[in-house]
């Protein structure tokens, strides 16, 4: 088997696992309820499946959340996976080894649990310093600036992040990246680390979550080694701290972080923090620390707009070439999955996995059928009545024509467009849509949807009309 064939098999296995996970998640959402699901299941990331042992890894962003899920939900997750895929015998819950939790780094010695030196941590006295050090531990190698899709929603944060990693000293420090879940703040944090390694081959980088910072702090405090802890932490050239919201309420850890910030800034070092809320919204954080966090640049990553969502989908599709995904499907996903970039990419992967495993072509109807849960969670509540009013106004026809039996082209085509939009923008079934259009049969609605899909591909004027109507309805 060639390398390309092995890669293709691995990709197929990955999308098959993702499809099974999407089905399991759908069931857990219904069983656990919104609050438990949102807090504990949604953050889970799918890890690899070891075929030899039947062990599947599921990753969570923090030690606390991993322990909570392991104690209360591991049996349920294991059972769900055994039902979905017989080869899964054990489910292992852990902190993500690449994104959220670095290798266990002892700040007292600068070594990880395997005796390796900290990433980019300068040579030991016996070292010659002739060779550059390896890439930082704890950073995901796939999360680089090259892989980050930029648009108006994140251009400030992207540019600020690149400036923070540049060879010349940045004009601001610290950099504070603020974004909701799944919008790219952690990606930029890792990208800064990778780029800094290129511009500063001998620079010393430390990446951790706020929770990890607190764990190391408490361990040093209990063992009476605070002086060594402080010395090690303040010896880094770039400090990257993720999920800062988890430091809330930890007074002693906050104080140490405050002193560390002051010490590093005084030496011209670089600091980057990431959190899901602005510094002023961090409840339980003392004012002096809030002041330090706000004194540099606070870069807010806004939810991705539709153009950025289109770009992200196209960038992800490159991985699946030569698989073809129609442009109307990309447009549909970009318009309807607007809440979270992670959900957007997950929806695309699930759709492709289903198509590959069943031998079906990717289509708008397939997307509607297979992504029900994701789509319903993201849709703006648009009614069929609203669609009919908007379409009638656009084409300058009377509202009664939506339910009439007239077959004139000037009436039929707007009616078909309205049926198409009703299917795209509402969760209504074909029979339900038919009843809103004068009691028409569901087959009539299916015909209208397929016809407009086809016309959008062949007729630029029709595609322009539909795009204009979509903007009016979704604004």
TrEMBL record:
Residues 356-475 are annotated as: Domain IV, binds dsDNA. Keywords: ATP-binding, Cytoplasm, DNA replication, DNA-binding, Lipid-binding, Nucleotide-binding. SUPFAM superfamilies: P-loop containing nucleoside triphosphate hydrolases, TrpR-like. It is found in: Cytoplasm. Residues 171-318 form the AAA+ ATPase domain. ATP binds at residues 182, 184-186. The keyword Protein transport does not apply. The keyword Nucleotide-binding applies. Residues 1-119 are annotated as: Domain I, interacts with DnaA modulators. Residues 104-133 are annotated as: Disordered. One of its GO terms (molecular function) is lipid binding. Transmembrane segments: none annotated. Oligomerizes as a right-handed, spiral filament on DNA at oriC. PANTHER family: CHROMOSOMAL REPLICATION INITIATOR PROTEIN DNAA. Domain I is involved in oligomerization and binding regulators, domain II is flexibile and of varying length in different bacteria, domain III forms the AAA+ region, while domain IV binds dsDNA. Plays an essential role in the initiation and regulation of chromosomal replication. ATP-DnaA binds to the origin of replication (oriC) to initiate formation of the DNA replication initiation complex once per cell cycle. Binds the DnaA box (a 9 base pair repeat at the origin) and separates the double-stranded (ds)DNA. Forms a right-handed helical filament on oriC DNA; dsDNA binds to the exterior of the filament while single-stranded (ss)DNA is stabiized in the filament's interior. This is Chromosomal replication initiator protein DnaA. It comes from Croceibacterium mercuriale.
